[in-house]
Write a structure and sequence with these properties.
By secondary structure, the chain is α/β, with parallel strands linked by helices. The protein has two domains: 4-200, Alpha-Beta Complex (2-enoyl-CoA Hydratase, Chain A, domain 1); 204-259, Lyase 2-enoyl-coa Hydratase, Chain  A, domain 2, CATH 1.10.12. The protein has eleven helices and nine strands. It has a six-stranded mixed β-sheet, with helices on both faces. Strands 5-7-8 form a three-stranded mixed β-sheet. β1 and β2 form a beta hairpin.
Length: 260
């Protein structure tokens, strides 16, 4: 792939690096297409347990590429809609990827880059990172990334940063719950690796089921149907091969089979 670097450090882990450091990893239609393809393919790998999403160079992602924006300025309504739909589909592909995604955030994270961060399951950011939902400065709005940012950042904080286009720091993002861990830049890789190891050490089917559970429960009312659904889910996993093996290993004080 020309805009991404994909590495497989172990059979159970993958790293997807945005690899356009000369433009601070700003994305265009090529990046969108390659991210969509990469996460579809990685999500279908039965051996994979964790994906790290990161950026080469000085920034995680500075939003949209200027040349791409110039091209979009000449599109008609249907061209703009199709272009935005591709971005929306890419974000959903990462968000719905069955494999958990750890975001490694350094440098600037602006506009669509905030959307990429928001679709990750775990976010680790370096101190000094600047986030910005800058669309309103250009007379635009963060529409396609909006559903994911509002979920991750919260409605009240999103209300502010969508309309003011202010920058906010990784420390503030951590305080608001958008970022899970905020660490010194020199500790970023070690902390990301700790998260990766935690994910890999858990039951792989259970992790996928947990990720799906959170997405399915979010915003749903506590109905009889929901309670029945959760009871079915725990029953399904208890009788699965992985569930049985995990319980047996716990009771026998032996390593779980997925650790071998």
């Amino acid at each position: 792939m020309s805009t991404l670097e994909i590495q497989r450090p172990t059979p159970h882990t993958a790293e997807v690096w945005l690899n356009r450091p000369e433009v601070r990893n700003a994305f265009n239609d090529g990046v969108i297409a390659e991210l969509t393809q990469a996460f579809r393919e990685l999500g279908a790998d039965p051996n994979l347990r964790c994906i790290t999403l990161a950026g080469r160079g000085k920034a995680f992602c500075a939003g949209a590429d200027l040349n791409w924006m110039k091209a979009m300025a000449g599109y008609d309504w249907e061209g703009n809609r199709a272009d935005a739909q591709a971005l929306a589909d890419m974000l959903y592909t990462i968000y719905s990827c069955p494999i958990p995604v750890v975001g490694r955030i350094h440098g600037d994270c602006y506009a669509g880059g905030v959307g990429l961060a928001a679709v990750c399951d775990v976010l680790v950011a370096a101190q000094g990172v600047q986030f910005c939902l800058s669309e309103a400065r250009l007379g635009l709005l963060p529409a396609t990334i909006g559903p994911y940012v509002v979920k991750a950042l919260g409605e009240q904080a999103s209300r502010r940063y969508f309309i003011t286009a202010e920058r906010f720091s990784s420390d503030e993002a951590h305080r608001l719950g958008f970022v899970h861990e905020c660490v010194p830049a020199e500790a970023l890789d070690a902390r990301v690796q700790t998260m990766v190891e935690a994910l890999v050490n858990n039951g792989p089917a259970a992790v996928k089921a947990c990720k799906r559970l959170v997405q399915d429960l979010s915003g749903r009312p506590l109905t009889d149907e929901l309670r029945a659904d959760t009871a079915r889910r725990i029953a399904d996993i208890r009788v699965s091969d992985e569930g049985k093996a995990g319980i047996r290993s716990f009771l026998e004080k032996s390593p779980a089979p997925w650790l071998s």
